[in-house]
């Protein structure tokens, strides 16, 4: 049985406990929950993004990430991007010459 004992809520709001299912059942269920979460986030065009109340903060955060990637990533690096979301930083890695990026989404 899977070791975690705290309950999760799936996309339908139903609670389940990971230890009540096998690891493979949990893996499939977890993947479905993560996929459902990211697929439910609407794609927003550039004009709507510019209307966001926190657009300046988002722009600053993106600038900081660009500077960090440019400063510390070297051509051919392999990167593990934890909490990658929908992959919004892929262009930054491409520009930085990163060879490979593995994105890990955490729900």
From TrEMBL:
GO cellular component entries: nucleus
EC number: 2.1.1.56
Gene3D superfamilies assigned: Vaccinia Virus protein VP39 (3.40.50.150)
Catalytic activities: a 5'-end (5'-triphosphoguanosine)-ribonucleoside in mRNA + S-adenosyl-L-methionine = a 5'-end (N(7)-methyl 5'-triphosphoguanosine)-ribonucleoside in mRNA + S-adenosyl-L-homocysteine
MRNA cap 0 methyltransferase domain residues: 52-107
Xref: Pfam families: mRNA_G-N7_MeTrfase
Family matches, as SUPFAM superfamilies: S-adenosyl-L-methionine-dependent methyltransferases
UniProt KW keywords: Methyltransferase, mRNA capping, mRNA processing, RNA-binding, S-adenosyl-L-methionine, Transferase
Gene Ontology molecular functions: mRNA 5'-cap (guanine-N7-)-methyltransferase activity; RNA binding
Enzyme's top EC category: transferase
InterPro entries named among the record's database cross-references: mRNA_G-N7_MeTrfase_dom (IPR004971), RG7MT1 (IPR039753), SAM-dependent_MTases_sf (IPR029063)
Statement: the UniProt record of this protein carries the keyword tRNA processing: no
Protein name according to UniProt: mRNA cap guanine-N(7) methyltransferase
Organism: Smittium culicis
């Amino acid at each position: 049985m899977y070791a975690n004992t705290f309950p999760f809520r799936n996309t339908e709001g139903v609670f389940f406990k990971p230890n009540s299912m096998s690891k493979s059942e949990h893996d499939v269920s977890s993947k479905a929950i993560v996929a459902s979460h990211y697929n439910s986030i609407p794609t927003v065009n550039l004009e709507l993004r510019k209307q966001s109340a926190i657009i300046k903060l988002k722009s600053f955060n993106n600038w900081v990430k660009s500077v960090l990637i440019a400063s510390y990533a070297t051509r051919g690096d392999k990167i593990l991007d934890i909490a990658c979301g929908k992959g919004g930083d892929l262009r930054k890695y491409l520009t930085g010459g990163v060879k490979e990026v593995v994105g890990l989404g955490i729900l």
